[in-house]
Amino acid sequence: MIIVMKHRATAAEIGTVVSQVEVHGYKTHLSQGTERTIIGVVGDDRPLENHQFELLPGVEQVVRILKPFKLASRDFHPENTIFDVRGVTIGGPELVVMAGPCAVESRSQLLETAHAVKEAGATMLRGGAYKPRSSPYSFQGLGEDGLELLAEARDATGLPIITEVMSPEAVALVGRYTDIFQIGARNMQNYALLQAVGQTRTPVMLKRGLMGTVQEWLMSAEYILSGGNYQVILCERGIRTFETATRNTLDINAIPLLKQWTHLPVFGDPSHATGKWELVAPAAKAIIAAGADGLIIEVHPHPEVALSDGAQSLKPERFAELMNDLRRLAPAVGRTLS
Amino acid sequence: MIIVMKHRATAAEIGTVVSQVEVHGYKTHLSQGTERTIIGVVGDDRPLENHQFELLPGVEQVVRILKPFKLASRDFHPENTIFDVRGVTIGGPELVVMAGPCAVESRSQLLETAHAVKEAGATMLRGGAYKPRSSPYSFQGLGEDGLELLAEARDATGLPIITEVMSPEAVALVGRYTDIFQIGARNMQNYALLQAVGQTRTPVMLKRGLMGTVQEWLMSAEYILSGGNYQVILCERGIRTFETATRNTLDINAIPLLKQWTHLPVFGDPSHATGKWELVAPAAKAIIAAGADGLIIEVHPHPEVALSDGAQSLKPERFAELMNDLRRLAPAVGRTLS
Amino acid sequence: MIIVMKHRATAAEIGTVVSQVEVHGYKTHLSQGTERTIIGVVGDDRPLENHQFELLPGVEQVVRILKPFKLASRDFHPENTIFDVRGVTIGGPELVVMAGPCAVESRSQLLETAHAVKEAGATMLRGGAYKPRSSPYSFQGLGEDGLELLAEARDATGLPIITEVMSPEAVALVGRYTDIFQIGARNMQNYALLQAVGQTRTPVMLKRGLMGTVQEWLMSAEYILSGGNYQVILCERGIRTFETATRNTLDINAIPLLKQWTHLPVFGDPSHATGKWELVAPAAKAIIAAGADGLIIEVHPHPEVALSDGAQSLKPERFAELMNDLRRLAPAVGRTLS
Amino acid sequence: MIIVMKHRATAAEIGTVVSQVEVHGYKTHLSQGTERTIIGVVGDDRPLENHQFELLPGVEQVVRILKPFKLASRDFHPENTIFDVRGVTIGGPELVVMAGPCAVESRSQLLETAHAVKEAGATMLRGGAYKPRSSPYSFQGLGEDGLELLAEARDATGLPIITEVMSPEAVALVGRYTDIFQIGARNMQNYALLQAVGQTRTPVMLKRGLMGTVQEWLMSAEYILSGGNYQVILCERGIRTFETATRNTLDINAIPLLKQWTHLPVFGDPSHATGKWELVAPAAKAIIAAGADGLIIEVHPHPEVALSDGAQSLKPERFAELMNDLRRLAPAVGRTLS
């Protein structure tokens, strides 16, 4: 932390700032220029982040140098985090594609989709049993019945499953079924939920909030990691901007940026990021070309009657075409996809 | 709902759309132009919102006419909602000012602030016992001890209290102490929490999410109202935009817009909306001039050592000046403030 | 400027940075902490802003301390800038209200409006002769004929006029008629145009761009000021955000922020900032309550047939009501309006 | 255009709307539902866009069906636009990479860069002679001297050149040198400039404004096309959002969306879209994977002393590596790059 004093700060004002820092056990280092005095705080001063030195008389600006996340940082853990979910390796050179319907609607819908995405090459099955819907009058998911259908589809296909958990008290129940917890965009800063999944040892996919900065997102991952659960996947799914021609704006820059800043696996969700099935394939390819470790994609056998997100769901045959395209693309960007 | 067919849609395509609508029990009305056929759906078609008629062959565009919220709408309830909280009337001509520290830090800090804001004219006390913090390493609030201090400050001053609840399982505990539940910005779309407070009969202040549209915000209110809890206050607290010179961007337009669209009381939070204490007073006056029913403001006796949000907290003497300014302003915009 | 070196920066790397700074004639001041070395650059280092010290080996971060605008800054010119336009004082305690149609459409439309707004208390007439339209097929304004009608309306009513100039080569022509040049939002960073009006001695109203930060806006004002034209009004007219329920988002925070940062007069445009006539009056009151020096408002006798911006134009009788409201509001916020 | 009347609109109100439409020569088609009357306007009603039917009594909503751009639309011109610039084909299967320094700084800097990018496989040279800078005190470019150096570099390497034009009166001068006019992001809605380049027959690269929607961008292209200049390239270069970890947010969705909506060639600028050289290569690959026809990339032999945009410039050796990566990628996404 660097504290820049105002042009005409008095010696007394400088002294007060110095003593306010030192009372917390930090050393300071003064740099007296012709116009301004600069006070450097020596050491890891993250614990001081709440202290409003900006408000002390004579202070012009406080510059925080250290990034506020630690466990999620590559400084702390230089190698990529790689982990296994029922035989599927996440974060390694092999790309991982998770696919399935937005919501589990029925046994036949789920099983038909599960077999189709497996056939096309997906290695994990997605499907929502609890759906966060902006309207209380919309279909909210099948609940535990949906979880049971997911488990049945896993048994039938061998695909591990990922499904969303929406509240701390549902963590135990959902955890009995799922192989990966999905934390949805609206819950990126639902800290009680983050703490609850941090207490489990089930992997977590943390989706980016519509308005979450990359730094805030990593701070949310830090909540999970600091609970002792180190198996966290970050999933870019589009942010909210002024552009309304697409449902969200896929922040493709975030993918290589995350790869610099963190060791955690990075995925992309081209379905939510575009909101339009015609854009899903090009967005998926861009995500992989930008360096992501995998994708999560909505597939529905009959999108026009889907109970949610039909407009952004691929039909199985289009998903199969995309998988073929990705198989051509993967080696051109140093990855594999079998 | 209006379904616009493409230029060259065939009779068969039109027939399919019509039958897909009618199978749900709705009537349709066809308008055959020279270039396009337009299919109007007759009646309250909100239940059809999940149906992706956009995906049927030959469809160009689907236009939804009805706003998706009902109970929150002025169409449904033309008069202003007015209710009483321990003798304080919310939503009436008298402005209501809630004030207090961001976080309850200690008995002396809270009591000193409570007496000061009462003295200055505030009629309700705010203070956080559970704090949503972006870092797991930051001060997270005093928890139930904080709630007890709030109850003690209420006893000492007679001011009703408002405090934040962050998870569904905390609703019962917080509800034993607070007079109004505050739902924070990060939880605007935490549907499990909205449903939980909707089941109580304690009033709720629902803050706008950093990225929530006004329509989404009213849909979140709808979650509470549809649980049978009709005492909901909407609080504009700034949205996230590209401008970083202030912590958030106060969406002042939202205040008169809400007054048109909904019967619920509308408040503003100039502390979070600006993030800078020097801007709190002008923002507070703008909020009242735009037609809000009240304010919630952060006051701290020693902002420079506050454990959270010091930079945006007013000192008691500045808060008292602002109250004086508001007393002059209120009658000029048709309100009272005693 | 402060240059923060990386944790393990070598003495050679530090030496290179120091010599790269000193070669430009600046002194440096080293602060050697236990973990990092910090290099302070002594003096007004704004001329170094293009130098990418970030890219030198061993550099972690470069922190620029000084705001990049000078002539627009209150540091440079502590008192408010106040100037006179044909007898109307801009920037003083008396509020100034400019009103008139978005576009000059005809002699009768303009004269009818001019008389009506004068009657209601406006002291300046606005009207566009050249209109920036997003479509090349839309009405683009009457051009010089419109300028002549504005001059005629000024003669008839005594109201000074303000009109938009859209390109450098039009500055001479528009300048022969107008009392104030308006630079529209889309041209906030049209530097050739800013330089052209900076060479004149006619006052300029510089509207904020839809996506201009407050700092960039002041840098654009700096282009005009640095040409020697010191009569610049800043006009907040709404920024673009994710919210689409209103045409733009009025950044009300910007008004008190500008009053802190700059000595230039600050106006607000509630018509563009909301895009809806029903919201214009509350937004106008909020702008004044936040501390602005004046308003510019669209008034049209027949908004439903206006050739542009009808939806946000007030009818003369509603404008007169608003002026009455503002006369009550002004003294409550320390201003006058006669 | 569809005009939706309010629930209780009277026959007289409906009649007024109908006659207001028909007076402009359009036919109407009424659809009388149980709750609402809907009035369809028959024919190409784009000329009615200024008419504020929303303001007529009894009108609830006006829905515009037609996209406002015509010449830029794929409906109007289904095949891809392909054109030749001094032997380089734009818009065909072969990818085009334009590269060079942000600003022309000196003869040696430009020639060194030009030879290096040609060597690496670029087929066009970029370089700014006139630079739009947010500060009037920053380096503004070499002006005509810069244009002469560009022409010299073209002679030396055979690479056609692209350079920015910033004002209508500079079009003639810049046009004597350049092979493609670049319109910068800040000028996307500088209509006088768009009209001026629309009068020439020199190809134009139109960059997206920081806050321009895809639809507005195509309307700006329409200004150029409607002047008779059909050789327009659209270049996505990042939009402004709340995320500040990167300079801009690359809207990768816009690339496939444009490919659907328009026949014009689409490029991407990974330098401005990221603002950080470390992110340029992954962003460039994503742009190509998403379906763009080419790239424009900043390359500088000594970024640390560049007079502008050093932080986002690639060194020649890194640019050569990227070109190798793109040669592997191109065939995997159905393109060629020699």
Protein model, in words:
Four copies of one chain form a homotetramer. Chain A has 338 residues and is of the alpha/beta class. Chain A has two domains: 2-63, Alpha-Beta Plaits; 83-333, TIM Barrel. Chain A is 33% helix and 18% strand. Chain A has ten helices and 14 strands. Chain A has an eight-stranded parallel β-barrel with strand order 7-8-9-10-11-12-13-14, surrounded by seven helices. The model of chain A has no long low-confidence stretch (mean pLDDT 93). Chains in contact: A-B, A-C, A-D, B-C, B-D, C-D. At the A-D interface, helix 7, helix 9 and helix 10 of A face helix 7, helix 9 and helix 10 of D.
Low-confidence stretches of chain A: none
Assigned CATH architecture of the largest domain in chain A: Alpha-Beta Barrel
Distance between the termini of chain A: 48 Å
The coarse silhouette of chain A is elongated
Strand content of chain A: 15-25%
Strand order of the largest sheet of chain A: 7-8-9-10-11-12-13-14
Features:
Alpha-Beta Plaits, 2 domains, homotetramer, TIM Barrel, alpha/beta, eight-stranded parallel beta barrel
SSE layout and pairings?
The structure is a homotetramer of 338-residue chains.
Chain A (H helix, E strand, L loop, with lengths): L1 E4 L5 H12 L4 E6 L4 E6 L16 E5 L19 E3 L2 E3 L5 E5 L6 H14 L3 E3 L17 H14 L3 E4 L6 H7 L2 E4 L7 H8 L5 E4 L6 H12 L6 E5 L17 H8 L4 E3 L1 H5 L2 H13 L4 E5 L17 H17 L6
